[in-house]
Amino acid sequence: MRARFGLKHLFMVAIVLCASREPAAAIDVKRADVKEFIAHMADTSSFKKRQLRKLLKAAQSQPAIIEAMDRPAEKAKQWFEYRPIFVSERRIREGTDFWIAHRQALDRASVRSGVAPEYLAAILGVETYYGRLTKGSYAGAMGAPQFMPSNYRRYAVDADADGHIDLWTNWPDVCASVGNYLKEHGWNTGEPVLSEATVAPDKAPDLDGRKLALSETVGSLRTKGVNFDSSLPEDAPALLIAADDTDGIHWRVGYNNFYVITRYNHSALYAMAVYELAAAVKQRVLLNDSAGGVTPAVAAQDVAAQGVATPGATMPGATTPGATTPGAAAQGASTVQPALQR
Fold first, then answer.
1. What's the pLDDT score for residue 19?
2. Closest CA to 178 of 265, 253, 95, 100
3. Lowest-confidence range among 2-16, 36-50, 113-127, 321-335?
4. Is residue 127 pLDDT above 80, yes or no?
5. Nearest-10 crossing angle of helices 268-290, 89-101
6. Full-prediction pTM beyond 0.85?
7. Which pLDDT score, from 0 to 100, does residue 118 have?
8. What residues have CB less than 8 Å from 294, skipping those under 6 apart?
9. Torsion of CA 93, 95, 100, 105, to 10 degrees
C-alpha cells in the first residue's frame, strides 16, 4: 500500500530530522535514522532515493521553529489561558457542522474503535480545526489528525479499502485512524473520561495534581480527601488534576480514557480541552437532532435561549467546514496549534 506523500509533507519531516542538529546544519544522510527514513519513503511513495538524499542534504535547521517546538501552548499556558483557544463558540459550532456533514464516517469509526464519535470530532477540532489547518506543521505531523510518520505507519487505517491511506482528503480514513490510535492506546468503550472534584482546604497541600500518570485509584483518591462522583469501581485507575483557573485551582479526576487522550498529546490541558469540546459539540448535535435537523446556528440560539452555557465568546459566522476536504484553507481561523509529537 502506497501512501500519498507530497513535497510539503516531506519537508515537514525534514524539520524533525533537523531538530537534533546544530543551527544551520544540513541533514547528514548517512545517519542511521535518516537512511531508514529514505528507504521507507522510497518504498512507500514515488520518491527516489537519490532525489530524497538531494532534498535532505539541502534542508537547513530553523532555530526559531525548533525553539517554538520547545514552547508549545501546553507548556507555556495555564488552563484558563489555554481553554479559550480550543473550547470556543466557533469551534463548537463548526464541530457541530462537521459531525452533521460526516456523521457516517464518524459513526463507522466509532463502531470500529469503540471510541464515542464526539471524541473523534473533538480531537480533529483541537488538532486542525476539523481538517482546515493542516499546513505548516513544524513538528512534521501529517494530515487532519496530525500523525507523525512513525504513527502513520502504525495506526493509520484504510477505512474505505481503496488501497490508499489518505489523512488529508479522505474522511473515513481520517476518522478511523484517530479511533484506531485511541483504541490501540487502551481506550475502554463506555467508560467515563473525567469527573469534577472538590478537595477540603486542609487536604489540598498534601495532594499532587500535576502528575500525568495513573498512579492513583478511585478509592485511593477518596481516601485522601478528594470528593467526586464516579460509576467506576474503587480499584479503577485514576489521576488527580489541578486545573489553574482565574479564581484558583479547580480539581478534577481523570480516568483511563482521559489518560489515553494524553497519549495523543502528552498534556492534561490538551485532554481537558478535548473532553470539554466533545461534550459541547455532542450537546449541540443532540439539540440539532431533537429539533428535526435545524441548522447548527439556530440550534446555538436555542441553547442560549434555554440558558445552557456555551464555552467561549461568540465569533463571526464561518463557512461550513463539513463540506470541505481536510487541508482546505481557513479564512480567519485561529492559527494557534498545540505542538504534537505522535
1. 47
2. 265
3. 321-335
4. yes
5. 60
6. no
7. 98
8. 288, 302
9. 180
The model's confidence at residue 59, banded by pLDDT at 50, 70 and 90, is: confident
How far apart (Å, rounded) are the C-alpha atoms in residues 297 and 276?
19
Span 144-154, mean pLDDT?
94
Handedness of CA 180, 182, 186, 189 (dihedral sign): negative
Q: What residue ranges do the domains of the chain occupy?
A: 7-69, 73-188+268-323, 194-259
Task: Please state which of the four CATH numbers 1.10.10, 3.40.50, 1.10.530, 3.40.1000 is assigned to the domain occupying 73-188+268-323.
Answer: 1.10.530
